[in-house]
Amino acid sequence: MRRILEYGAVVVIALLLNFLLPRALPGGPMKLFGSPEALSRLTEAERAQIAQQYGFGRPLPEQFADYLTGVFTLDLGTSLSDGRPVAEAIGEALPWTLLLVGTSIVITCVLGVALGVLGALRRRRGGGAGLLGTAIVLDSLPAFWLGMLLIVVFGVQLNVLPTYGAGTLAHLVLPVTTLVVTGLGYFFLYTRSSMLTVLTSEPVQHAHARGVPYGRLVRRHALRPALLPVHTIVLMEIGFLAGGSIVIETVFAYPGLGRLTFGAISARDYPLMQGAFLVLTLMVVAMNAIADATYPLLDPRARQ
Amino acid sequence: MRALGRQGRTGLALLAVITAAAVYGLLLPDSAGTARIGEPYAPPGPGLPLGADDLGRSLLDQLLVGAATSLGLGFLVALVVTALAAVIGGAAAIGPRWLSSLIMRSIDVMLILPELILFILAAAFLGQSFGIRVAILVVLMWPVPARVLRAGMLTAWSRGHLEVARAMGAPRWWLLLRHGSYLIGPLLIPVFVRAAMRAILYDATLSFLGLGDPTAPSWGTTLYWVQVNGVFLSEAWVWWALPPGLAITLSVLALALIGTAVEERLNPALKEVPA
Amino acid sequence: MLSITGMSVCYDGLPAVDRVSLDVGDGEIVALVGESGCGKTSLARALLGLLPGSAEVTGSAMLGDDDLARRTDWAGVRGRKIAIVPQGAMTGLSPVHKVGAQIEEMLTLHGGRARPGELLDRVGLGAEHLTCHPHELSGGQRQRVAIALALAGEPSLLVADEPTTGLDAIVQRQVLALLASLGIGMLIVSHDLAALAPHADRVAVMYAGRLAEDRPKGAPPRHPYTLGLLTATPATDRSIPWGSVPGSAPPLGQARPGCRFAPRCPLALDPCHDVDPPLVDGLACHHPGAPVYPVVPRSTPSAGTAAATLTGIRHTYRRRGVQALKGVDLEVRSGEIVGLVGESGSGKSTLARIALGLIKPTAGRVVVDGEELTGRTGKALRLLQRRIGFVHQDPYDSLHPGMRVGALVAEPLVVAGTPGDREEKVLAALEAAGLPCEREFLRRFPGQLSGGQRQRVSIARALAGEPVLLIADEATSMLDVSTRAGIATTLRSLASGRGLAVVFVTHDLGEAVQACDRIVVLRSGEIVEHGPAADLAAAPAHPYTQELLK
Q1: Is the ipTM of this complex over 0.90?
Q2: Fewest beta carbons within 10 Å, which of A37, C43, C70, C512?
Q3: Section C270-279 average pLDDT
């Protein structure tokens, strides 16, 4: 119940931010209605007329109500660069981003947990230390730079994978790899530390004392409790990967929301920017809600 | 120093080198990295150790000035975030109940919101000057450390010697300075380091999207021009794209090594694991 | 059945268990008793190969045809031939699996033939608990589940490591009775000699890694250390004195040659310090006899003026919705020691913290030294708090590890801004708390002190501010049995010597009977009985008190 209220609050805050930030824009919300050049040619009278027409002089709550109506009727305004409705441009880009981010999240979680557990179990041996070092380095790589390096190596030098666009599975390989590799480090480190904590906890030590063999000890007694805190990290990872998608789509010219956002930023196309950010944020919130709903499956204490 | 292990010492050494570069970058004249001093697309040569970009600006100068910007921003954000998180986390731990639940609920809400996306959104609309970027990052980044420090503060507050000191009528400043600092102090280092890491990465990402401060060279901005000019299709990527990316990676890596080393020391669970 | 011969356990070359030989017969219950650090847990865990990698085991431990010492392959042995109820078992159940599933796992792994319901029945639980998760059970119930898990593989020997620690007194007795009724061979490791003695067929006492005594049930104890442990266990009868063994056990690897106990033994002669006594006839001692140990003095209470009065105290923890105190009155006069007795959840710690001004009660008044404490805040509250001394339960947590003894004891003086020569006051407080009155001692860190010394530093710190009231919250509970009475003696001398009013909070009614002038018994936030210690011990009126006194 508390979580539902919190998600409600998150959505309201996301909407409020989206509504208020453009109004804090230097030059005012006017920028939402024309390119800088077009605006500079307007006379004072024309400006006043636009402000009148779009109700900028009215009290903020009224404007917010109008904005909400717009959002709920999927009317997000018109793009300044090509005159298309923002909702339509976003509608085309969203599936591509869902595909990219969704695939990356699933792969990151599975791989991160597997390697994290391995890193914890092999802590004393050479492999474990190697994994730890690699994870820390990967966690430090900026996603966009890694993407560039992958393009240089696999696209330009080896010429084995497509480096831009989308459509086939091969197109997904480099962007997903980039996102997974940069997201994996933190996930690995966290799983590893959680697993080590659980391995030294009383329930696991006692199961060991009762004669539970090592493999079973890890699979049945340590894994689930170790995943409880990792679950929280999944939530953060979703936001991280979605944020990463903005730059990754730009690097790989992938036709999703991220590139749409980048294009909007470059063209100072504020309505498109506003809409894309809103949808990206809501996408993260929705993915979080789904991940959150799975928590009681892991922890019986959370079921009451 | 010894207590940090080999990893931590490597991190400290790396950080020292980058800090030295940043200090050198600060001492360069204002025009460094922004003035045209060579042929556009000039390869490395005398006077231009890392070549020049499409406007004939020295890439090495951009790297050095960028170091100052990145580290400066990272440390400033980390400092403010840590202080803010300590105050807010402390209030949530020992403040009145209504304040505590208000803070905790806001943290829960903030954690669901994606930091990087909001950072880019806010910077796009509010402006990209150094001060505004720092302010936005601080507003976005306090929740995670505040939660960590609240937990630490709660543990500390229940510790025996602190309770005894409270019972003997010691004023709050005494509790904080004599007892609290001893218990909380070690937690601040990883919090600070992690905040600096994320701030540097986020800021580089922002500049890479072309939303950096247009008047000041930075690692991310250099890479933005790499992207715009399609540099990685030519051989120029070796001196143009590689150094700033490496600089970001190594700065973050140095901080990560220090942070991990401190955390390993603080986590007693990492000592004895059954075989 | 189990035959341990010359077994030693060394950590980094330092012996924690030193050449111990011990047998456990078929169906026999052997109690292995000793204080913390004596090596009893190392010995027990060595039998199941549960020691950390730094430990080295020598000697042999034959269970039937299997040598348990230095075994590396435990499949088919651990859980099946020898099983353990580990220390702190009630927090050691898997939190994510149901009780039934955990028992099933043990049955499958170790080839047990019983059904899960039968096992629960054997430990006194109903089959309805099979579908519970551990967090839905009480501490005692979880302990019973842990025992059922150990029984699942039908082992011929059960090792129970401190099976009653953390449980309330009444539940402790029930769990021990359950273990004794199981009818299988058992090695019970405990620090509580008196509680185990009625159930054990044989009692083995360890001291500093060596076996001091190994006697069958009914035989009189002969080793001076065993006698010391017995006198150190407070009886609920005031005619039996409560004594302590001065000094402390040697830390790992610092035992001197000769009898390990000689430095603390009142009967020790020269050979005791040179020659290690062998275990002959179940006794390792050169001079068995009845030593005289210092005992807690009795006093005729001299009723002074009221130092603290608590009236109508109620408290509810709003966050958990728990009503911790339901209207409690308490008066403490100068020069007397009042025992506040109760099990966990009785509200005794809450009451102590209300008297200290750490918790604001929901209702009621607290008057200390004639001034009202409740309702005060800020500086006014702090000024009054300085007249109350507090001795915290945990000597390992209540001393700032980075402060030296001198600074620790001087803290109340610094906080209060007391002018004048602080060092003199500190030294006087140390002396009153029974510590060496030396400048060298002032420079030590808590890490260099024994548990008993730490608790005395804690008392000295409480005394330094010259309080009128001293509140000792379970001040003895984490100390070794043999040193507990020493703390009580110090408190008594402070009460009669300085006219200090003392509130002695404890879960052990025996301690209260021995150490206090008056006793207040708390249960679920209410006083069930109160009166002079002698009367309450001799003729308890309330059934709950009678149950506690058993």
Answers
A1: no
A2: A37
A3: 89
